[in-house]
Write a structure and sequence with these properties.
The chain has one helix at residues 2-109. The protein is an all-alpha fold.
Length: 110
């Protein structure tokens, strides 16, 4: 009777161990598949981020080049504006001098 009881207990324990091993194997398989899926997603995201970074670096280079060009154009325009202002001042001085001459000639003509 005791041997039968031990036999039943051993049989139950074997079934329990086999069930636990089967569940563990199934869990490991599922987790391995999930890990592979996550690694694929991560690799895809890294690839997308690398491509986005390259696009942003190209855009930054383009913007830096345009900034440099526009800065040079601005400096050229400012130089032109200063020259025009000097020309305007010279013309105004010439007009004042001519107006003074005209006024002087009118005084002499009277």
């Amino acid at each position: 009777k005791e041997a039968l009881s031990w036999g039943c207990a051993l049989s139950d324990l074997s079934v329990t161990v086999e069930g636990a091993q089967a569940r563990s194997a199934r869990d490991v398989s599922q987790m391995t598949m999930q890990l592979q899926a996550l690694e694929n997603v991560l690799a895809e995201e890294r690839s997308e981020q690398a491509a986005a970074r390259q696009r942003l670096e190209r855009r930054l280079g383009e913007l830096a080049r345009r900034h440099t060009e526009q800065q040079a154009e601005l400096e050229e325009a400012q130089t032109g504006a200063r020259l025009l202002e000097a020309d305007v001042d010279n013309v105004r001085s010439a007009i004042r001098a001519q107006e003074q001459e005209v006024a002087e000639l009118r005084r002499k003509a009277r």
